[in-house]
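Hypothesis: this fold can be encoded by more than one sequence.
Test: take the structure tokens below, design a sequence, compare later.
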């Protein structure tokens, strides 16, 4: 019988492996997001879950991924995306996911704001 996966496990090597398979410019843009998340939430764990890197601090904060034509920051919070309407003007949003490219990366301020707001939402601040 298979048990439920341990959501709190810290497996940064899984994230490293995920990123290693990406083209250099895509990898660099996601590494930048990863660095910002780790700076804002240094105690967070990271792992690959549901096929994407996830950052967790008692609860899942955000995830990131790469698709064929863009990369994504998964905020895991439709209500946060709705509340941030003004801050997201000019940014491609689909549900609780923000899309970006290496040519048009997310601003540091936006990533930082999302991580801080998710920390508040999940009760870890």
């Amino acid at each position: 019988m298979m048990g439920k996966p341990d959501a709190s496990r810290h497996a940064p090597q899984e994230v490293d492996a995920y990123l290693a398979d990406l083209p250099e410019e895509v990898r660099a843009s996601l590494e930048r997001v990863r660095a910002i998340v780790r700076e804002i939430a240094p105690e967070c764990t990271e792992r690959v879950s549901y096929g994407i890197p996830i950052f967790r601090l008692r609860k899942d904060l955000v995830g990131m991924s790469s698709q064929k034509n863009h990369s994504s920051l998964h905020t895991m919070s439709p209500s946060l995306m709705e509340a941030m309407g003004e801050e997201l003007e000019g940014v491609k949003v689909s549900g609780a996911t923000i899309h970006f490219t290496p040519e048009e990366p997310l601003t540091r301020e936006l990533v930082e704001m999302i991580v801080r707001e998710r920390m508040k939402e999940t009760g870890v601040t």
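Strands lie at 45-49, 52-57, 59-66, 71-74, 92-94, 97-100. The chain has one domain: 12-120.
Hypothesis status: open.
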